[in-house]
Model the fold of this input.
Amino acid sequence: MVEAGMDEMDVIVTATVNSADLLDMSESIGTIEAGYFADIAIFDSAAVRENAEYAPGTSRLASEGIAYVLVNGQLVVDRGTLVENIFPGEPIRGAGR
Done:
């Protein structure tokens, strides 16, 4: 989206606030605040390298350059390493879906 000329902050708002509105769920997702569900990835965009491979029969290779990831407030990637045996995610279902 940025490559197409969109401002970086507008991309973030589109991916978060606007998506929550579209799902009719802006009362529980879309912004970072107490009581809301949120996933947060902390990274340096210049350091990210996509090398993930999930084909059958291959080892799982994660992307590089993602320092931290929090899912529903729980740390699942710590200094680039997946934290084992933590599964805090939940599916998001919009109203009437």
User: Anything to note?
Assistant: Residues 8-22 form the longest helix (15 residues).
